[in-house]
């Protein structure tokens, strides 16, 4: 009977060293292979040129490297690149490279599909199939880093977990991936350049604070009124704003790091004075800034971006209340690569 080969990147460095010792080899061989797997991002055992042919064959007999494959790459008029990434089991996720004058930002996925049901998000229409493994998240980052070097002559500068899925519902794997991305044995990136975006799972926000993570936190708020938020993000019914608020206060107390709120203003949904006042009030709880995101239409028009006047009023009111506000223009809309548009359409 054929033995099932193990995913070699599920092993820690220690486990890999132990494996080689058990094989009668040196623990050091584990370090060499580990370096190939992560820092050098080898796709095959063949690539490991400083490992003997025999050892490579032995690894081949026992393990697999479940490397992702960029199935298709699309380039937008504005330079944005979208990768459709094929996983070892044939499922597909998407990741995006967003270039600006000074930065290259990778937007990566954490799950195949999403279990949340935000009414305005295309990914929500895909069933959640499974969580991504740490190596599958890591590979997306490496692929985008390579593309950034190739097309923009510079390495990746920032990473946002704003692709498909809810990162805090795949917390352990996201954390392991970030460990590799930030470790010198991986990509050696600073955690200050990484942002995890969540729809707001209070228990997990507290856990992150307890785990003393060093990356940034963004919360997709979109409304500071429970009824409104529940109508567009139904899971809010289970995690109401009071709980979210409490978890964010806890986060700030422990980490002393500002929170970013992501916020889209929609016509007739959250563009009234009452909505603005509620947001201003919510912003008083913990030090924060607000990123107003442009709406990327995904449907038949149930959701429409509020007009400029309403947006201006939002921005002015926030500024008057000394709240830092940024307006984020959409990127990659023509190739369905913008926020909330990732739905494996091509
Ligand atoms: N699940 C995580 C990360 C994925 S969504 C989260 O909710 O934060 C990344 C961001 O895109 C979130 O702020 C989300 O609310 C926003 N978004 C979703 N659909 C959108 C759309 N159609 N237009 C603009 N932003 C959208």
Secondary structure layout:
Blueprint: E1 6-7, H1 13-22, H2 27-37, H3 53-62, E2 63-64, E3 69-75, E4 81-86, E5 92-99, E6 104-107, E7 111-112, E8 130-131, H4 134-152, E9 158-161, H5 171-182, E10 194-198, H6 202-210, E11 216-220, H7 226-232, H8 241-255, E12 259-263, H9 273-282, E13 288-293, H10 308-320, E14 324-328
Parallel strand pairs: 1-2, 6-9, 9-10, 10-11, 11-12, 12-13, 13-14
Antiparallel strand pairs: 3-4, 4-5, 5-6, 7-8
Helix pairs in contact: 1-2, 4-5, 6-8
Bound molecules: S-adenosyl-L-homocysteine.
Question: Could you explain how this protein is built, in words?
Answer:
It is found in: Cytoplasm. It comes from Litoribaculum gwangyangense. The protein is of the alpha/beta class. It has ten helices and 14 strands. The strands form three sheets. The protein has a ten-stranded mixed sheet with strand order 3-4-5-6-9-10-11-12-13-14, with helices on one face. α4 packs across α5 and α6 runs parallel beside α8 (241-255). The longest helix has 19 residues, at 134-152. The protein is elongated, with a radius of gyration of 22 Å. Bound molecules: S-adenosyl-L-homocysteine. S-adenosyl-L-homocysteine binds at residues 120-121, 162, 166, 197-199, 220, 262, 264, 293, 295-296, 298, 339-340.
Question: What labels describe this entry?
Answer:
346 residues; two-stranded parallel ribbon; 10 helices; 14 strands; alpha/beta; binds S-adenosyl-L-homocysteine; ten-stranded mixed beta sheet
User: Strand percentage, roughly?
Assistant: 15-25%
Q: What structural class do the secondary elements suggest?
A: alpha/beta
Helicity range: 25-40%
Q: How are the strands of the largest sheet arranged? A: 3-4-5-6-9-10-11-12-13-14
Q: Give the SSE order as H and E letters.
A: EHHHEEEEEEEHEHEHEHHEHEHE
Shape: elongated
Kindly provide the radius of gyration, computed on alpha-carbon positions and rounded to a whole number of angstroms.
22 Å
Number of helices: 10
How many β-strand stretches?
Answer: 14
Small molecules held by this entry: S-adenosyl-L-homocysteine
Identify low-pLDDT runs. Answer: none
Quote the average pLDDT: 95
The first-to-last residue Cα distance is: 39 Å
The largest pleated sheet is described as: 10 strands, mixed
